[in-house]
Amino acid sequence: MTITTLSSRELNQDVTRAKKAAKNGPVFITDLGKPAYILLSFEDYQRLTKQRRNIADALAMPGIADIEFEPQRVAIGAQSLP
What we know:
4 helices; 18% strand; alpha+beta; three-stranded mixed beta sheet
């Protein structure tokens, strides 16, 4: 993992460089010489937060129509109250 440090000015002048650097590790972005932000790849962010996609997000993702999914039907009976 490579850590890259860019000033806010450098980021504004070359966003592509920052995005490429984020593929190899975090990019620290400084304001007035002090760390202010961190740019991460989406995969790194998910790994760090252990974020799991919920079913609604998964169903809304592009290309979902190309995925075959045929769940079995489940019969749920009425429950009588005591």
